[in-house]
Amino acid sequence: MASSSSSSSRLAFFAISVLLLSSLAMATDFVVGDDKGWTLDFDYTAWAQDKVFHVGDTLWFNYAKANHNVVKVNGTQFKDCSFTAENEVLSTGKDNITLKAEGRKWYICSRGNHCANHQMKLVITVEAAPPAPAPTSSASSLVASLSGALIVALAAILS
Asked: Where is the chain membrane-spanning (predicted)?
């Protein structure tokens, strides 16, 4: 009886792991500014232009923490390069923001005149999470192979 319960637990763990890993594999990490990072005089509008951001993706802001920060703002604050005490300020130098909702997202650096005079501002549009891709013929054969291996493994566990 204990081995049957143990086998069921293992199977449940395996199924949950596969689901979690497949959802993680669909998300994309974006390093803002690529190898330049979050810095002065970089065109973040051009950087974001050819990218598609989805719910679940993560933005990584890399910068010298003594010199910059990242502030989540609204559209008006973005335009004016302003913020209030209610805005979330990130300042570790390696900040990550997971995109949790669709819509426009605005970020600025609040240090000195970095936003207004040095273009340290980013606006993106976040789309719904993409649907899972349809299996291709090679993916179907991989799934079939893995299913066969899973059945053999389960048989070995249950015996």
From this structure: 139-158
